[in-house]
């Protein structure tokens, strides 16, 4: 991971992928290390939250979340998958779907 600077690559790739996906498109990431999964979780969580202040009684249309979680948390490999492929034991899969254009994007 260190030699190939994989975490820095992931830090650049995640925002680029999230900006590039169109409405209805999905971004799916498999991570095999907790550091990778933490980056993915933070990026996905940021996109699934409203930008409106918490004390507002409603969320204005322009402050609705841009993304919707497809998975509930991180999906893990099943016992059958791990039995067939032991390397799958550490995998975590997360997915989000774009539900509205990115803020600041031309409509």
Compact overview of the structure:
By secondary structure, the protein is α+β, with helices and mostly antiparallel strands. The chain is 33% helix and 17% strand. It has helices at 6-20, 34-47, 79-84; strands spanning 26-31, 67-69, 75-76, 92-98.
Strand content: 15-25%
| Counted beta strands | 4
**Structural class computed from helices and strand pairing:** alpha+beta
Largest sheet at a glance?
A: 4 strands, antiparallel
Radius of gyration: 16 Å
C-alpha termini separation: 38 Å
Task: Provide the fold topology.
Layout: H1 6-20, E1 26-31, H2 34-47, E2 67-69, E3 75-76, H3 79-84, E4 92-98
Antiparallel strand pairs: 1-4, 2-4, 3-4
Structure description:
The chain has helices at 6-20, 34-47, 79-84, and strands spanning 26-31, 67-69, 75-76, 92-98. It has 107 residues and is an alpha+beta fold. The protein has a domain at 26-50 and 65-107: Vaccinia Virus protein VP39 (Rossmann fold). Strands 1, 2, 3 and 4 form a four-stranded antiparallel beta sheet that branches. Helix 1 (6-20) runs parallel beside helix 2 (34-47). The chain is elongated and about 50 Å long. The termini are far apart. The mean pLDDT is 90.
Which structural traits does this protein have?
4 strands, alpha+beta, 17% strand, four-stranded antiparallel β-sheet, Rossmann fold, 3 helices
């Amino acid at each position: 991971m260190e030699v190939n600077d994989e975490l820095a690559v992931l830090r650049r790739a995640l925002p680029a992928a999230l900006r590039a996906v169109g409405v209805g498109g999905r971004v799916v990431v498999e991570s095999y290390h907790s550091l990778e999964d933490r980056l993915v979780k933070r990026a996905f969580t940021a996109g699934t939250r409203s930008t409106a202040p918490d004390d507002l009684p409603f969320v204005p249309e322009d402050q609705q979340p841009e993304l919707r979680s497809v998975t509930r948390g991180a999906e893990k490999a099943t016992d059958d998958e791990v039995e067939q492929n032991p390397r799958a034991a550490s995998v975590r899969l997360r997915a989000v779907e774009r539900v509205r254009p990115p803020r600041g994007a031309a409509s």
